[in-house]
Amino acid sequence: MNTQLAEALVTSMFTLAGGVLVFAVSELSQELLLKPLTAFRKTLSDVSFALVYHANIIASAKWEDSPEKCQEASAELRRLSARIRADAGSIWGYRALSLIGVLPRRVDVSEAASLLIRLSNITGSNGDWELKSEDKRQVGRLLNLEIG
Predict the structure, then answer these.
(1) What is the model's pLDDT at position 1?
(2) How far apart are the C-alpha atoms of 40 and 83, rounded to whole Å?
(3) CA distance linking residue 69 with residue 56, whole number of Å
(4) Residue 14 contacts by C-beta under 8 Å, 6 or more apart in sequence?
(5) Range of the domain at 49
(6) How far is CA 89 from CA 14, 19, 44, 146, in A?
(7) Mapping DSSP to helix (H, G, I), strand (E, B) and coil, where does residue 101 land?
(8) Number of helices (H), then strands (E), in the chain
(9) Would 11 be classed as within a structural domain?
(10) Do residues 139 and 112 make contact, with C-beta atoms less than 8 angstroms apart?
(11) Helices 67-89, 35-53: inter-axial angle, 10-degree rounding
(12) Is residue 45 assigned to a domain?
C-alpha cells in the first residue's frame, strides 16, 4: 500500500509540474511573441489606413490652406514611423520570422519608417506630388501593404 501511495504522489507531482510548465511556457510565448507580433500587425494596418485616409492631404494640400489637416496628417505619419520601429524592435526572433516571410525584413521596416518621416516632413508643401506618390508606393511595397 505504501508503494501505491508513493507512486500516486509522484504521478500527481509530475502532472502538476507538467501543468505549471505548460502554463509558464504559454504565458512566456504570449508575452514575448504573440502580443508584440499582434501590436506590429496592428501598426502595419494603421500605416495602410493613414496613407489611404490622408492621401489627399499628403498629395496636394497646402499648409497655408489647411494647416490643421496638414498638421494632423503629418503628426500621424511621424507617430506611425516611430511606432513601427518600436513594435518591430519588441518582437523576439524577428530575423527568423522575417526569413520565413511572416514579417517584412528589418531593413525594409527601417526604410519604410524613414519614408514615413519624409512624407510627414513634406506634407503641406507645394509640389513634390511625384515624390509623395512614389514614397507611398514604396512604403506599401516594403511593408507588403495594399495602399491603392
Answers:
(1) 58
(2) 8
(3) 10
(4) none
(5) 34-143
(6) 37, 31, 14, 23
(7) coil
(8) 7, 0
(9) no
(10) yes
(11) 160
(12) yes
* Amino acid type, 96: A
User: Is 40 in contact with 87 (CB distance < 8 Å)?
Assistant: yes
Cell of 31: 508575452
Is 49 domain-assigned?
yes
**DSSP state, residue 145:** -
Nine-digit cell string for 25: 511556457
For 99, the grid coordinates are 526569413
Q: Report the candidate in 80, 79, 136, 140 with the shortest Cα–Cα distance to residue 104.
A: 140
pLDDT tens digit at each of 148 positions of the chain = 578 888 888 888 888 888 888 888 888 877 878 899 999 999 999 999 999 999 989 888 787 788 899 899 999 999 999 999 999 999 999 999 999 999 999 999 999 999 999 999 999 887 778 889 999 999 999 999 988 7
The number of domains in the chain is 1
Q: For the whole model, what pTM was predicted? A: 0.82
Q: Could you tell me if residue 64 is inside a domain?
A: yes
Give the distance from CA 61 to its chain's centroid: 28
- Which cell numbers hold the place of 69? 489637416
Q: Where are the alpha helices (DSSP H) in 30-128?
A: 35-53, 55-60, 67-89, 94-99, 106-122
CA dist 98 and 73 (Å) reads: 29
